[in-house]
UniProtKB/TrEMBL annotation:
<dbReference type="InterPro" id="IPR029044">
    <property type="entry name" value="Nucleotide-diphossugar_trans"/>
</dbReference>
<dbReference type="GO" id="GO:0016757">
    <property type="term" value="F:glycosyltransferase activity"/>
</dbReference>
<dbReference type="InterPro" id="IPR001173">
    <property type="entry name" value="Glyco_trans_2-like"/>
</dbReference>
<keyword id="KW-0328">Glycosyltransferase</keyword>
<dbReference type="Pfam" id="PF00535">
    <property type="entry name" value="Glycos_transf_2"/>
</dbReference>
<keyword id="KW-0808">Transferase</keyword>
<protein>
    <submittedName>
        <fullName>Glycosyltransferase</fullName>
        <ecNumber>2.4.-.-</ecNumber>
    </submittedName>
</protein>
<feature type="domain" description="Glycosyltransferase 2-like">
    <location>
        <begin position="18"/>
        <end position="178"/>
    </location>
</feature>
Amino acid sequence: MSTVRGVFRRRRSTPQVSVVVPAYDVAEYLPACLDSLLGQTLRELEVVVVDDGATDDSGAIADGYADRDPRVRVVHIDNRGLGAARNEGIRHARGEYLGFCDADDLMTPRALELLVALARETDAPLVTGNVVRLEGDRRPGLPWMNRLHAERGPLTIDDLPELLGDVFAWNKLFRRDFWDEAGLSWPERIRYEDQPTTTHAYLRAGRIGVTPDVVYHWRVRHDGSSITQQRATVADLTDRWTTKRMALTSVEEYGVAGVTEVFRDRVLPGDMGQYFVNIPDCSEEWWDLLVTGVREFWGPERSLTGSTLPPAQRLIGWLVEEDRRADASLVSSYARSLGAPLPRVALGDGSVRVDVPGLDPATVAPEAMRLRDHET
């Protein structure tokens, strides 16, 4: 069941943009998030806050905003998770364009104005902007996001398949008629629900508008409550493999070989380093699940040695494929202790490989240790 609190706008029957904000135990952050939305230069918007059964004051805070500003509507539901909360918010959204904002993050003041203008200019049903991290008073950029959003304009996913790596829900606008016609929704009761849905959206959109303008501040939380800080659990890794599988299925069904190749080698491996750091302290069950997943997605016929991961992670990936836990743990611990690239050894044939004390290179496939020309 759900209950709705708020006042329908009277000046305009259809807002330009609806932004859905799921809120679960985010009372500390929610006011700043809502202030960033209500302070947008684009005024014709509605903000649909979904109180996902919060146990703190999140729901009451949202109700207070709805009492003061007719652009805010609040939907109170029993706790069902992020994907379900977003889907519930969509059912109440009335805007021409649909956007999302996590309740602990911020949108830049001109974000919606810029994204709507981009959508109009490019006639694209899906547009995406750049992101920076929110770390106290710092706003560091993300080099890989800068690369994907380097130029403003329209493109197709065939033009830039690596854009599939911009999996975030919240730096985008979706034209609502496109969202509905494409049958888009967020997977429910699973972590990392962004990737399957954004992947499907890119593949269905045809034209995609991209801008280098920063539209979103992504907060770094160090309290352990962020989903992305729970990667050492079996449940987390299970969900990661599931959502990767869903996204890969969509890409393979799209049927463009070049897109599939980039997705496998550049996009799918992108977050594996965040899992490899857990190897030294992981449970046997987690390790077995890691091996199974790595073999499924990159297997002996492809291998993470052919991916765009940095050298230490390619080596660890190969050791995972070979089920060599002790050696993978050795490399992971050594790389973390260095805080710098692995040492290098020049070989007689002019090539260069990495070096890890205690790991016998004679027992490792040469491609797992060899540096590429641009890495030497």
